[in-house]
Each structure stands twice: as structure tokens, then as C-alpha cells.
């Protein structure tokens, strides 16, 4: 493939991404991870960030970032998002498999992405309940 053809293909891809609203930006997601009263958590904890698009039955979640936290407390993570909302999920990953298992507490919260490409502090509370 010639350089001109490659440049043309790249340009068409960029135009298609812009036309469909797929442009992404780096967003800082901050918050605090805690456990509900009476919930036994041990860690480590898996923190997952999802780019949320659509609403209701048409809600689509795309995982864009995963981090491991050693303790409850404040967190700050950056990832690329193309939507205007973020869903944050945390799991008390006792068996260290990176996924929610039957005996592991978990929590989820949603936040808007601001014009400054950040979220307000998210309160993420782990509780014992069926996995998502």
C-alpha cells in the first residue's frame, strides 16, 4: 500500500470517528472507597472504570480502565472516555481472580464527566450482595 493510500485511509478513519462522536479525552476519576457498616472486607480491591453511553435498556458499558487498590480510602485514576458519564465498580477481590465472586462485597456508582474532564468525588460503598 502506498503512503498516499495509507494517509487517505487514516484521514477517513479520523473523519468517521469525529462524525460518530467517538473522540475520546483523558478524564480524572476521583473518589473514596469504603465498606457498608457490618460488611467484612479484606482486600485487595479491584477498581473498574466504565465509559457509559445511552440510558435504560440501551445503556452500554465499555470497561476502559482497571486498577488494583490495596486498602480502602481515596482513589484517583485517569482513563480515556468518549461518553459523558462514568460508572465505577469496586470489588473486594479476596480470591484475587479479578472478578466478582459469590462471597465478595462490591459496589457501583455513576458520575457525570464535567467540562474540566474530571468527576466530582465519587462515594463508592462495598456491600455484600449478588454480583452484577
Q: What report would you give on this structure?
A:
The longest helix is centred in the first third of the chain and has 17 residues, at 3-19. The chain has one helix at residues 3-19, and strands at residues 25-35, 45-53, 60-69, 73-81, 85-92, 106-112, 122-126. It has a single domain, classed as Immunoglobulin-like. The protein is mainly beta.
Question: What share of residues is helical?
Answer: 10-25%
The fraction of residues in strands falls at: 35-45%
Task: Output the structural class.
Answer: mainly beta
Task: State the low-pLDDT regions, or none.
Answer: 1-20
* Spatial shape: globular
Number of strands: 7
Integer tally of domains: 1
CATH architecture: Sandwich
Q: Indicate the radius of gyration in whole angstroms.
A: 18 Å
Q: Quick one: CATH class?
A: Mainly Beta
The profile of the biggest β sheet is:
4 strands, antiparallel
Q: Which strand order do you get reading across the main beta sheet?
A: 3-2-5-6
CATH topology type: Immunoglobulin-like
Mean pLDDT: 86
Give the N-terminus to C-terminus distance in angstroms: 46 Å
Which structural traits does this protein have?
mainly beta; 1 helix; disordered N terminus
Blueprint (SSEs and pairs):
Layout (H helix, E strand, L loop, with lengths): L2 H17 L5 E11 L9 E9 L6 E10 L3 E9 L3 E8 L13 E7 L9 E5 L6
Short description:
The protein has 132 residues and is mainly beta.
Amino acid at each position: 500500500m502506498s503512503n498516499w493510500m495509507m494517509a487517505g485511509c487514516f484521514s477517513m478513519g479520523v473523519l468517521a470517528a469525529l462524525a460518530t462522536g467517538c473522540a475520546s479525552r483523558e478524564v480524572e476519576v476521583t473518589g473514596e472507597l469504603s465498606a457498608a457498616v457490618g460488611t467484612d472486607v479484606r482486600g485487595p480491591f479491584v477498581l473498574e472504570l466504565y465509559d457509559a453511553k445511552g440510558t435504560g435498556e440501551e445503556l452500554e458499558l465499555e470497561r476502559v480502565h482497571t486498577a488494583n487498590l490495596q486498602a480502602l480510602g481515596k482513589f484517583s485514576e485517569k482513563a480515556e472516555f468518549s461518553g459523558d458519564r462514568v460508572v465505577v465498580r469496586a470489588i473486594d477481590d479476596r480470591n484475587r481472580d479479578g472478578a466478582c465472586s459469590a462471597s465478595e462485597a462490591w459496589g457501583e456508582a455513576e458520575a457525570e464527566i464535567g467540562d474540566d474532564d474530571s468527576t466530582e468525588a465519587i462515594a463508592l460503598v462495598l456491600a455484600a450482595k449478588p454480583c452484577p
